[in-house]
Design goal:
It is a single chain. This protein is an alpha/beta fold. It has two domains: 213 residues, Glycogen Phosphorylase B (Rossmann fold, 3-Layer(aba) Sandwich); 185 residues, Rossmann fold. The strands form two sheets. It has an eight-stranded mixed beta sheet, sandwiched between helices. It has a six-stranded parallel beta sheet with strand order 11-10-9-12-13-14, with helices on both faces. Helix 2 runs parallel beside helix 3, helix 3 packs across helix 5 and helix 9 packs across helix 14. The mean pLDDT is 93.
């Protein structure tokens, strides 16, 4: 069914990148197309270390019905704070001309955080008077401060001013959790402007790929007679992946030799992790690295335990890691170091064990508890799928689109 409405989406990262927010942008865009909307996405050239292996792309292309327009940025997004800020700034500056052109024929602009996308969306709203919805899975600069990447008080003050300006130039704002929504409300954004649109699970994609590549996975990632513990996704500072290296070191030192740990993914902390594994001479950890997304469901199914972690920071209590949604549908016990919204999520659906953030002793204890034969794993997977289907999320977005069009 054709809706005759044109959506301009803005996000600095898009397929073949598949970071959490890049996946969110892609699945939303393709979901809109399936519901009859014309969708353009304004994005940048993908970063190699966050992209699907052996992937290709064009400056302008159509993928699954989505028209993609890419701009180059002068600096890569890296761990260095200055380069990261310059990369974000260059995306905004370089994208303005193309954004103005694309927004003139659009009925609604949807920008997806981080903050530069919201800044660009706000500028286009200011110039072309188009409805602007700002989708915020990550709150900046709060997240950068929590990660310890932004420490300069002058820079924090400036970023706070820019953050508030971006909120003021959005007609509506959505967050992934109620905690995030309360955070933004506390900064002066009125309740009527805010809504919660959580992450989701694409059940069809997951089920289609669950057993499709079983032979390949069994051949390449077979660890006979081992209990496989997997971390899947971004290996970044907020995840403090060092804690898992320490856990595996302690398990080995205590004579627990049946465990193997897999790091599946990439990120700025991966080089450090590799160095630490070599230094400690650990042979119970394997770096799988980036894999084609189609193999992820099968790798999760092959795992015995799925783990993730956050550093201990009050701001991170507002988040539910996107990876938990695919972890959840895998029907494997999850062990997470977290508090707040993520803790409530795991406990609501009986998905596993929550421990104190970055606590290696608690992680080790939970691993042993899950594998000693006494752990009672009774996940409420069907209830979770019902609550977090992508169709439910698209319904929420259509309400925003319809309201914007009526206005």
């Amino acid at each position: 069914m054709k809706n005759n409405l044109n959506i301009l989406m803005i996000h600095q990262h898009y397929f073949p990148e598949m970071s959490g927010t890049a996946r969110r942008a892609k699945e939303l865009a393709e979901g809109f197309v399936k519901r009859g909307y014309d969708v353009n996405i304004l994005t940048s050239f993908p970063r190699d270390y966050r992209s699907m292996p052996n992937s290709s792309y064009n400056v302008i292309e159509s993928l699954n019905g989505v028209s993609i327009y890419r701009v180059s940025t002068l600096f890569e997004v890296k761990k260095n704070v200055v380069l990261r800020m310059l990369s974000y700034l260059s995306f905004v500056v370089i994208s303005i001309k193309l954004g103005l052109k694309l927004s003139r024929k659009s009925d609604i602009i949807i920008s997806i955080a981080p903050l530069p996308s919201g800044i660009l969306g706000g500028l286009l709203h200011l110039f072309n008077k188009k409805y602007h919805h700002f989708d915020i899975p990550d709150i900046l600069p709060d997240l950068g401060i929590a990660a310890g990447m932004i420490k300069n008080k002058g820079l924090i003050y400036l970023l706070r001013k820019i953050e508030i300006w971006a909120y003021s130039r959005a007609n509506s704002i959505s967050t992934c959790t109620k905690g995030q929504m309360n955070n933004i409300h506390s900064k002066g954004v009125p309740d009527e402007k805010l809504s919660c649109i959580p992450d989701w699970i694409d059940t069809a994609y997951f089920k289609n790929n669950l057993n499709k590549h079983k032979l390949f996975i069994d051949q390449k990632y077979a660890f006979p007679n081992k209990v496989t513990i997997s971390f899947v996704g971004n290996i970044g500072a907020l995840q403090n992946p060092d804690v898992f290296v320490e856990v595996m070191k302690d398990l080995a030192n205590d004579g627990h030799n049946k465990y193997i740990f897999l790091f599946i993914g990439d990120g700025i902390m991966l080089p450090r992790i590799k160095e630490k594994i070599l230094k400690l001479k650990l042979n119970n950890i394997k770096i799988i690295g980036r894999v084609d997304r189609k193999y992820i469901p099968g790798l999760m199914k092959k795992s015995d335990i799925l783990v993730t972690n956050y550093i201990s920071d009050e701001h991170l209590n507002l988040y539910v890691p996107g990876k938990l949604f695919e972890y959840a549908i895998s029907n494997k016990p999850i062990i997470i170091g977290s508090k707040g919204d993520a803790k409530n999520f795991i406990e609501k659906y009986n998905f596993g064990i929550v421990v104190a953030p970055s606590n290696k002793i608690a992680f080790k204890k939970a691993i042993l508890e899950v594998t000693n034969g006494n752990y009672n794993f009774l996940p409420k997977t069907d209830k979770f799928i019902s609550d977090y289907s992508i169709e439910n999320i698209l319904d929420k977005y259509e309400n925003i689109i319809n309201n914007s069009h009526k206005g």
